[in-house]
Each structure stands twice: as C-alpha cells, then as structure tokens.
Amino acid sequence: MKVFDLQCTSQHVFEGWFGSEADFSDQLVRQLIQCPVCGDDRIDKRLSAPRLNLSRSADPHGGPGEAAVPARPASTEVVLASPQAEATQAVLRLAKAMLEQTQDVGPRFAEEARRIHYGESQARPIRGQATPEQTRELLDEGVPVMPFMLPESLKGTLQ
Ligand SMILES: [Zn+2]
Q: Is the pTM higher than 0.70?
C-alpha cells in the first residue's frame, strides 16, 4: 500500500492510498482520482518540499531568523469521495440541511457568533466565513463553532 500527498490545480492537498505506484499512475491517466474539495481531476503528486525545509532549518549554519520553524498547518480529516458514493450523497444531504437551517452572515461570522454567544444578538443558527485564527479564538472563548467545508457542488445553490 502506498500513500501519496496529492494536490489539485487549486492547491487543495489530500492523501491518496494506492496499491502501488503503477496503480496510482493508472488511476491518474483514467482520471479516476478527484480532488475531494473541488472535484478537479488534474491531480499531481505533491512535492515534499516542506519536510526538506524543516530538516534544513535545523542546520546550525542557518541565520537567526530561520530558527523559528513555522508549524505545519493543522491537518483535517479528508475523504476521497466519488460523487456517486452513498457516503458522499449522505454528506451532501447533510450539507444541504445545514444550508437551509442556518442564516448566512458572510464575513461578519466571528462578530455575530460572539454577539449570539454573549446574548447580545438573537440566538439562531448562523454560518459564514472565518479565518482559522478567528475560529480558534472563538473556540478558545467557548463559542461552539464548527469548521465546515462546503462541497463545491452546493456552492451554486446559495442565495
Ligand atoms: Zn481541489
């Protein structure tokens, strides 16, 4: 079994499991590998450059500015889902329900979630955009937010 870090043309990174390198190449040319985020089938194996950088910055000859190694961004669970799979359909149904039952507050999400949490705004389910930093801050404050990635196929159904 081989595990590859894969990347689509929109720079989404995900893991793919294959029986062998040949298996991977075969599925790739037959366009059977799709990005789980956007469905793109132009997939590349990701260069493992970040790991190389990591070992190089441990080099004592590196400048003082290189001493702080930026942590790899926290990774999230990712599923390689084909549109026909039952599991994918279940997730899409769930996502649709989530869209129908929440009010879109867009980029004001962090502000509005806080107001609701502290009782300054009417309690209701909302969704919107937040940066990873904003999400972390909200969770630190005890605001029960949940990162949610909208499947690409549902984005057109908004508004
Ligand atoms: Zn993608």
A: no
